[in-house]
Write a structure and sequence with these properties.
Layout: H1 3-15, H2 18-25, H3 29-43, E1 48-51, E2 54-57, H4 59-87, E3 91-98, H5 99-116, E4 120-127, H6 129-138, E5 144-146, E6 155-169, E7 177-178, E8 187-191, H7 196-207, E9 216-221, H8 224-232, E10 238-241, H9 246-250, E11 255-259, E12 264-273, H10 280-291
Parallel strand pairs: 3-4, 3-5, 7-11, 8-9
Antiparallel strand pairs: 1-2, 5-12, 6-10, 6-11, 6-12
Helix pairs in contact: 1-2, 1-3, 1-4, 2-3
């Protein structure tokens, strides 16, 4: 049964007439009769006894009427609630992001989004790209921002923001450009397994012919901020996102070094599950991100 059938049934029940119900609902009498017949077949019971032009509701009809009214009212109220959400969007957005977009990109965009939709609050869980994708696959979240594509068939990736990975040094390297193999001469600080930055770094070093196993890794840290602090304290060099060191570069607290003839570019992605539907306020945020893609 569907809501339309229930509305027809309620009208017939109240009017005790197929013809009056037809007039009330602007339908033909045969259409009314056909819907009631279909409903009776589906419920496997008689709803109305017919005595010429007079119809008498059965006991089953009395029970159905008591419950059908509440169902129809709830559906109508639900429509009003959904329309209200669309006219004045409100609610809580819970998304996940890998460390670079979650820490250095999304906060700037959230301010603009809140100016447009002040009644929507946003919570961001910051982890690594692998964890974000796993949360999408398990259904814990509906939308994520990641720094690398993981080969998962049920994930859609939409290009969101450009990024460049650069060597970050305290004062260990004096030159602005070095040959790829020179990286092996310096103590190296790396991000944890699952980090998008680490995955992209390993990909680029591999393309340059650098054996990852030969890196002089002195420390593995689980956040970009921790890596930056370790670099500032002279522990070694690292490869980080240009987005993550803008303040340090402005105040000359860190130095970037580039590799001759190579540019380590990557893209951040908006990630969603291929089979999950986004609720209305999530769609608003998704479209806002798409509209502002590559703007920073």
């Amino acid at each position: 049964m569907d809501i339309h059938q229930l509305k027809i049934f309620i009208s017939v029940f109240k009017n005790k007439s197929f013809s009056k119900a037809a007039k009330e609902l602007f339908l033909t009498q045969p259409t009314i009769s056909e819907h009631i017949k279909t409903l009776e077949e589906e419920l496997d019971c008689k709803l109305f006894d017919r005595f010429g032009k007079v119809i008498i509701p059965t006991t089953e009809a009395e029970i159905l009427y008591e419950n059908a009214q509440g169902v129809v009212e709830k559906v109508e109220n639900l429509k009003e609630v959904l329309q209200k959400i669309k006219s004045t969007p409100s609610g809580n957005l819970y998304i996940a992001a890998s460390s670079i977009p979650g820490t250095y990109i999304l906060p700037k965009l959230m301010s603009s989004f809140k100016n447009i939709y002040p009644q929507i609050s946003i919570q961001i869980d910051i982890s690594d790209s692998k964890s974000v994708i796993e949360s999408l696959l398990s259904g814990q979240i509906l939308l994520g921002i990641v720094g690398t594509k993981l080969r998962k068939s049920k994930i859609d990736y939409f290009p969101f923001m450009d990024d460049e990975l650069v060597i970050v040094s305290p004062n260990l390297i004096k030159e602005s450009f070095i040959e790829p193999e020179e990286i092996l001469k310096y103590p190296f600080i790396t991000r944890e397994e699952g980090s998008g930055t680490r995955k992209e770094m390993e990909k680029w070093l591999g393309e340059m012919g650098i054996d990852i196993e030969k890196l002089n890794i002195v420390c593995t840290l689980s956040s970009t901020d921790a890596v930056k602090e370790a670099i500032k304290n002279g522990l070694g060099i690292s490869i980080l996102s240009i987005h993550s060191i803008k303040d340090e570069l402005e105040y000359k607290k860190l130095k970037i070094v580039k590799i001759k003839n190579y540019k380590m570019n990557r893209i951040f992605y908006i990630a969603t599950h291929t089979t999950r539907s986004l609720p209305y306020i999530y769609k608003l945020f998704y479209e806002f991100l798409k509209e502002n893609a590559f703007s920073l």
